[in-house]
Design brief:
Elements: E1 16-17, E2 19-28, E3 31-37, E4 42-46, H1 53-65, E5 84-92, E6 96-104, E7 107-112, E8 115-116, E9 129-132, H2 144-158, H3 162-185, H4 192-220, H5 223-231, E10 236-241, H6 249-258, H7 260-266, E11 277-282, E12 285-286, H8 287-290, H9 293-315, E13 317-318, E14 320-324, H10 332-341, E15 348-352, H11 360-364, E16 367-372, E17 375-378
Parallel strand pairs: 1-13, 4-15, 4-16, 9-14, 14-15
Antiparallel strand pairs: 2-3, 2-5, 5-6, 6-7, 7-8, 10-11, 11-12, 16-17
Length: 380
């Protein structure tokens, strides 16, 4: 069964179109060396399971946000037996620029046009990538920390200062937890310093809360339409849960004061944006409890597709799109609907083991790469 390939187009005048022209890998995962040129529209990477298809799109993702979507340990990206890895790519938006991420046993460096960028926040907002994975529906049943990580990554693509806010909040949170334990052990220590830390924590917390609330509200304006485009019915709404919601700074500080003895006994900060969570509601029911596996997949796909519109609106540019092993996650009808939502101005990377599930007309206008035995070969 072939897929219909009718494409919804954006007006090119609405914004810039981001393209990854080339990528070069040295000692990345299973690849000793790779140099590829990419199609401006659709790039299909195919091969058997375990050959390294996902490794290639992972490299594109790392080039964008400097982190993997598969591992928290950067050193895992270095090919076995080697000391470092380098991902290099030419990105064309309004102009062409060279980006590099270099990871070694000693740490990580990022460069733009061969200039070292000291702050990651000055780098990761430059290349916009939307990633769709086949098992992302597990986000609904995993921990709140996983869902916070999801929105942290997505907001950091839009808001340069967001990473700075997070880093400052986490630094103060660590100091406050340490001082709570110190106060518990040393009963004569002054609470004044804890109050100073609490004030700073709340200040940074509200900066994060405001950006998270803004992001969720913006997604909520779009996500139901995207969901209905995939499966034709259902209303999706994301409920943002936070200790800070509908409260002033003074009210939050009073909560800390009221619960001082409890926090002291437990030696940690019990309230704040580090306990935030997002709940996806399908027709006003928690999708994690009531949704089918298919509905959960559709919801996360709708979320990511809504991000494309949001990036276009906020940054006046279209992102790159990665669809990793999409065909293993959905039936043919749902895949067809996803493909229909793509537009030929978005540069897209699809990994698959099944070329025959793509329409021949679409294949004719795509670049196709075969992955086999630690090598990637462009076939057309």
């Amino acid at each position: 069964m072939y897929l219909n390939t009718m494409i919804i187009k954006y007006n090119a005048k609405e914004g810039q179109i981001m393209k990854l022209n080339t990528i070069k890998l040295i000692n990345f995962r299973n690849y000793p060396k790779v140099e590829l040129n990419f199609n401006n529209h659709l790039n299909i990477i195919y091969g058997n399971n375990g050959e390294g298809k996902t490794n290639l799109v992972e490299a594109i993702y790392v080039l964008s946000i400097t982190k993997s979507f598969r591992s928290n340990d950067d050193k895992m990206l270095i090919k076995d037996g080697e000391l470092s890895t380098k991902i290099e790519g030419e990105i064309e938006n309004d102009t062409k620029n060279n980006y590099q991420v270099i990871i070694s046993k000693d740490g990580k460096k990022v460069k733009i046009n061969n200039n070292i960028i000291s702050k990651l926040s000055d780098y990761i907002t430059k290349i916009n990538v939307i990633l769709l994975l086949p098992d992302e529906q597990t986000i609904f049943t995993s921990s709140p920390q996983s869902r916070r990580k999801l929105i942290n990554i997505e907001i950091s693509k839009l808001e340069k200062e967001y990473i700075v806010y997070l880093n400052n909040y986490n630094k103060i949170l660590k100091q406050r937890n340490f001082y709570l334990r110190d106060l518990y052990i040393n009963g004569n220590a002054s609470k004044d310093y804890l109050d100073i830390l609490t004030q700073k924590l709340v200040e940074w917390g509200f900066k994060i809360f405001n950006l998270r609330e803004k992001f969720i509200n913006s997604i909520n304006e779009i996500i139901s339409k995207k969901y209905q485009s995939i499966c034709h019915d259902g209303e999706i709404f994301i409920n943002y849960r936070s200790d800070y919601k509908n409260k002033s700074k003074e009210e939050i500080i009073k909560i800390y004061d009221k619960n001082y003895k409890r926090e002291l006994a437990m030696g940690k900060t019990l309230y704040g944006i580090h306990h935030d969570d997002i709940i996806f509601l399908l027709d006003n029911k928690d999708i994690s409890e009531w949704g089918s596996n298919g509905q959960k997949k559709n919801a996360i796909f709708a979320f990511k597709l809504a991000e494309i519109d949001l990036i276009m609106k906020e940054k006046n540019t279209l992102p790159l799109l990665i669809l990793d092993d999409l065909f293993s996650a959905l039936d043919n009808e749902k895949v067809k609907n996803i493909i229909n939502l793509l537009n030929d101005n978005i540069q897209t990377f699809i990994t698959t083991t099944e070329l025959d599930r793509l329409d021949e007309k679409l294949l004719a206008t795509s670049s196709i790469y075969k992955v086999e035995r630690n090598e990637i070969r462009e076939e057309k």
